[in-house]
Amino acid sequence: MLIEQAPYELTVAKKAPLLLAQLNSLTAHHREFCSEYESVVTAQWPNYAVANQLAAVPYLAVSLFKHLSLKSIPDSEVFKTLYSSGTTGNPSKIALDRETAGLQSKTLVKIMQHWLGKERRPMLIIDKPSILDARNSFSARAAGIKGLSFMGRNHCYALNEDMSVNIDAVQQFCSEFAAKPVLVFGFTFMVWQYFVEQLKQSKQRISLPNAILLHSGGWKKLEDRAVDNATFKQAVLEHTDIPKVHNFYGLVEQVGSIFVECEQGHLHCSSYSDVLVRDAETWHPLPLGKEGILQLMSVLPKSYPGHSLLTEDRAVILGEDDCLCGRKGKYFNIKGRLPKVDMRGCSDTFTPTVRERS
Ligand SMILES: [Zn+2]
């Protein structure tokens, strides 16, 4: 089982057969237990029996989870429902049973421990304390903070309720923990807009030279402000002394199998996930270096048919097993969202239009 492997040590020769077998078994499982999924597979892949390669695994448009309640468990076994943050329209609804929820947490811990070490670190959260109140509990921000907070201890919230920096609390945290390995976590836009920018404007700085900053949540709003990854890292270093900054990418539809950015600036697949990039016209898989629509595979989703999903993000796969950071697996960059027009094309139908698939 891939879940028992270390996150970044499998080369493609070892990983590919294990991954294909697990994805095939998930496809069979969901066809049996989710009638909507079975209908999609039958309609879109009429001759499908079993996938002989990764690219032949059936996939759903991720937007489908916004329109349908797709699950492979009876209602009585729903342990928890996750909702996406979608800026417009319906949120995705993801039904988890105890088994899938457990797998997700276990995997997230395995991946995070690779980057953070096994010991819980003092944790500075770039958000306001009320983010975890009941009324926010369905937001992706709350879910992300909750998900990562168990990697930390001595949690400190960096922002006040009005989103200003709680500089006293932050300085207190720094004076107590700056000499130790610290975890700082926040959503990309929050870190930029409400932390780094505010420190800059008020000519304040903090010093956490042993910290690692993890951030997630998309670059769209920052790109609108012409802030790229290098600018982001530089500004973080300048105002906080945090030397290690890692973005990570993941979908609420595949919680747990996240993609973390390495020291080379590349997002890495773990042993529990993989990616393909498809041409937006033909849906054919594209070779390394070509930009297309990102497809995500994960071995975790058992309670809902989310093991192979076509996202609404554009990406380029840069290589496999040979990143200079030494980690194995595919690595890639996100190039932005699909234009609205294409997104509608994906979400109005079960999967992208019936065309040739491979
Ligand atoms: Zn790397």
Automatic annotation (TrEMBL):
* InterPro entries given in the database record: ANL_N_sf, LuxE
Domain Acyl-protein synthetase LuxE intervals: 3-350
| Pfam families found in the cross-reference section | LuxE
**What Gene Ontology terms for biological process does this UniProt record contain?**
bioluminescence
The Swiss-Prot or TrEMBL record annotates one GO molecular function as:
long-chain fatty acid--protein ligase activity
Q: What is this protein called?
A: Acyl-protein synthetase
Q: Which organism is it from?
A: Alteromonas hispanica
